[in-house]
Sequence to fold (110 residues):
Amino acid sequence: MNPRQMKRMMKQMGIETEEIEGVEEVIIRTVSNEYVFRNPDVTRTTVQGQETWQIVGTADVGERDGDVSIPIEDIKLVAEKANVSEEEARKALEECDGEPAEAIVKLMSG
Fold:
């Protein structure tokens, strides 16, 4: 079946799909984590008025502490560079608004 026929058949069944162009970022926040998709492919499908969103891409996962989201990779980087535990690194990152360079300098100077 060619794409035109498929699209026509889906429309008859009440199914509409739309690829969302120009998406730069999608963020999903849960109580404890934040998932950030950069430059994902996003498609919205509507079936009888019910919308379903599909996100295709790789997510950077970070822990959430209030409004500050800190990627696990940043915690590990700061811990390694400043030679401290991941808990100390996360605390320093929180105090430095998630900026790894500032957190490293803070930990190494204090």
Notes: The longest strand covers residues 41-47. The mean pLDDT is 90.
